[in-house]
Design brief:
This protein is 83% helix and 0% strand. The chain is flat, with a radius of gyration of 19 Å. The two termini are 16 Å apart.
Length: 70
Amino acid sequence: LRVSLVRFLTINIACGVVWISFLIFIGYYFGNVLAAIPKDIQIVGALLVIVLFFTAIRIISTYLAKAEWE
């Protein structure tokens, strides 16, 4: 499939604006929630997110290594 450059850039910029607006909205409305969580739970939560991120990367890379590419 071929897409014209103008169409691609239009859709890409529009989706970027939607994505950034969503992140700003979430940050604005839920930004103060972090202050209400105790410091110990924040540290455990951050470590859990980091471990899950690297685990997901490992699983995805293993899957992609086994995939048959055309």
